[in-house]
Write a structure and sequence with these properties.
Layout: H1 4-17, H2 24-31, H3 35-50, E1 56-61, E2 64-69, H4 74-77, H5 90-102, E3 105-106, H6 107-114, H7 119-127, E4 131-136, E5 144-148, H8 150-156, H9 177-196
Antiparallel strand pairs: 1-2, 3-5, 4-5
């Protein structure tokens, strides 16, 4: 029979070496313990890591448990470990956000929202394994449907897509005819003044 400290040490070792989140069932299989014991171990380990003076925490991401660094230490960690493959461009982030909120979604639906071609963005996001093809839309041409991956959840520190922040729809500001007329007059005056100064 293992002592509690040994069980906690085994849990910590397994979580430490795993690059991917480990599901509850996988931890049960690896550690060879009962459900109640594992749940108690996870709770105890979480409490230990939440104590002052600890640089890591136990997070539930993508349906599993993973050790991650505490947010307050990200700046110092980036001095040691650079993000792999560089950061995503603003265009790639916009494309990823559309896929995350609208999935499953086709390339043309994304392009309709963004207003530009996204071929290179899709390729980059597929390459970084943040999105995958999840099927085909049942319309003429049967275009690919895209969705996010578990790696996307891991990178954002989310357990499920339901944890994404709620989209806030900002009202479109509509100009009155008076404001439009004023703006047009100002524009015309600027052009006239520019031409007169030549």
């Amino acid at each position: 029979m293992l002592f509690r400290e040994d069980s906690l040490a085994m849990l910590e070792a397994v979580l430490f070496v795993s690059h991917e989140p480990l599901s509850f069932d996988k931890l049960l299989e690896v550690l060879g313990i009962e459900k109640e014991e594992l749940q108690d171990l996870l709770n105890d380990y979480q409490e230990i890591l939440n104590m002052p003076g600890r640089g890591i925490k136990l997070a539930i991401v993508a349906g599993g448990y993973k050790l991650i660094t505490k947010d307050s230490y990200h700046e110092i960690i980036e001095k040691v470990i650079k993000p792999q493959g560089g950061q995503l461009s603003r265009a790639a982030l916009e494309t990823l956000a559309i896929i995350a909120y609208k999935q499953p979604v086709t390339r043309s639906e994304i392009e309709d929202i963004r207003g530009v071609s996204i071929d290179s963005m899709i390729y980059k996001l597929l390459e970084k394994e943040l999105i995958i093809e999840v099927g085909r839309k049942e319309v003429p041409g049967r275009p690919n449907l895209y969705g996010t991956t578990d790696r996307f959840l891991i990178q954002l520190g989310l357990n499920t897509l339901e944890e994404l922040p709620e989209l806030v729809q900002s009202p479109i500001y509509e100009l009155s005819q008076e404001e439009l007329d004023f703006n047009n007059d100002s524009l015309v005056m600027d052009i006239v003044n520019t031409n007169e100064n030549k």
